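Lab meeting notes turned into a lecture example. A postdoc, R.K., suggested we walk through two folding results consecutively so the class can see how the record format repeats. The first protein's sequence and structure tokens come next.
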Amino acid sequence: MPLTLSVIVLTHFGLLDGSAAVAIDDKSFVVATDELNTLFVSRFASGGPQPVFDLDRDLHDFPSAKKKKGGFKEADLEGAAKVGDNLIYWIGSHSRDGDGDDCPQRQVFFATKLSEESDCRKALVKEGKVYTNLLADMIGDPKLKKFKLEEAATKKPKNPNALNIESLCTAADGKTLLIGFRSPITNGKALLLPLTNSAAITSEGSHEKAVFDDPVELDLHGLGVRDMVWHPKLNAYLIIGGHYDEHLNDPDAAKPKLFQWSGDKDKKPKETAVKLDELNPEALVLFPDDRVLILSDDGGLEVTPKIKQKDELKNKTKRQDEVFFRSVWLDVTQ
């Protein structure tokens, strides 16, 4: 099936970056920004995004820096995956912060559930507990020694081979979650790690550790995983491959690419003909009508207004119409 990128680029005002999202229905999606510890619902037929879930407020076990010295620390949510009709898992980048300091707020994995309330401010509720030992479980797994994750976890996130999780995807079986790494890239290949017991490790009172299936090394032409989604109509995964560091305005930097992959470990992902050069693709959102919305993280692009300063956004000194991210539809046709 050919994949066609719409020529119409949508603009979503009110958020600086759309870093992870899942569709709620055919007209709305819940989205995280990697600059705020808040989840939002964005609707195509209405105004700006509405906040529906505050990690610092609604997760009593979130390692909030507001309770300590140092001020705001972002969770850097980079991946989201929907399991069943209403359960959504979220994952932080698990990287160091921009200064290279350890950041527990980024080392989170948790679930929310879509409520049946009509008020969009009550659209998400906590499900289970926040799991904060995922990095330790990965470092301690013998199957992952070759990827040197312990060393990678000590580097600044934009450095070569620093640890940086960017994707969370529900596998074709509907149960396993696939954790996609933007970095490290080992022997030119991106790391994909299947997590098999997400419900167990996020259950209240559970003391289970994360259990991983064999890691998968993806040949994405030297790029890491920015996001991926299983598309049942294609019977394949769609994968955004991206550079470990944006170099957004560098014309010579490696451009993002869209791949299609069967899920067979012995088969390479195939690069599609879809061109993403004008975007900084960050997330893939599958909607009920089989279309896929590609979110673009525009925080560092020259196309975005210079007025958008991250610290000002966090302090809420800018209006919603002064910040935005873009998206474009990917159509799957017969």
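The second example is placed directly after the first for contrast:
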Amino acid sequence: MQPSIVSLDLHSVAQQKFAIRLSLVMGFLMLGGKTYAAVITGSSAILSDAAESVVHIVAVAFAAFSLSLSLKPADLNHPYGHDKISFFSAGWEGMMIVIAAVYIMYEAISRWIAGPQLRNLDTGMLFVAGAALINASLGAFLIWQGKRFSSLILVANGKHVLTDVWTSLGVVAGLLLTLWTGWLAFDPMLAILVALNIVWSGGKLIRQSVGGLMDEANPELEERLRTVLEAETSKRGLRYHELRYRSTGNSVWVDFHLLFPKGSFIEDAHWKATEIEAAIKSSLSTPVTIVSHLEPIEGHDQTHQELKAAKE
């Protein structure tokens, strides 16, 4: 049968583009505030936080491009669409996070060895704390929108923003300890600990990107698909096999074989297959492309064995 496709509506597209643009604008605002705080305090922890914001802007710019490309319809050069760019975007963002963490650790160690020179910590701490509150709201919004519209790009960007929140909170904790104890080494020490946490977050994004590009299995999705297929085929006296699926980042592609009794009319088989496809679509919250292949039950195994033997 022809693929059955559910596409993103205009409202979904507009909401996703608004979310990624908001993330980019806020990234520039956060960078400005943190850079100012780093200059007036001389804190390596705040500088590392500002550096993470630079990486965030670069990553979001690529994410904005990726989102725009992923929403383009299929064409002659890309018959399966452009959704896979979502996984490249997530991998790029993860890599940028890791690079930022390496820079943070380098800068913190260098300043620790040279001897921290800190000033105006109370003012700098207020700037960083304010940035953390704004980013917490932004990150939660991006992840909510990403899950709402099944956009890996927005989810990855939201997670990146939340790592920035942890960075800022770690910086605030380090500055508070420094103010309370007077021990300046707390500043670079906390910067290093925050960097290690960022490496973990970036690594998970890279892992997710590789899994998507390699069409890694999704046990939860497979269980849902098999539950629907078993229910829908059994009540129609049919069987199915050769179930396959993959995520493109914004949607899911599913294909399977439906086995019909010998002598079934093609019109009847077509409508039953269409009903089964509709049941699958209604069970998933993401856009779905479904390809079903109709086969006779009688002599099915023998036919496939003969074809396999002929190829060998």
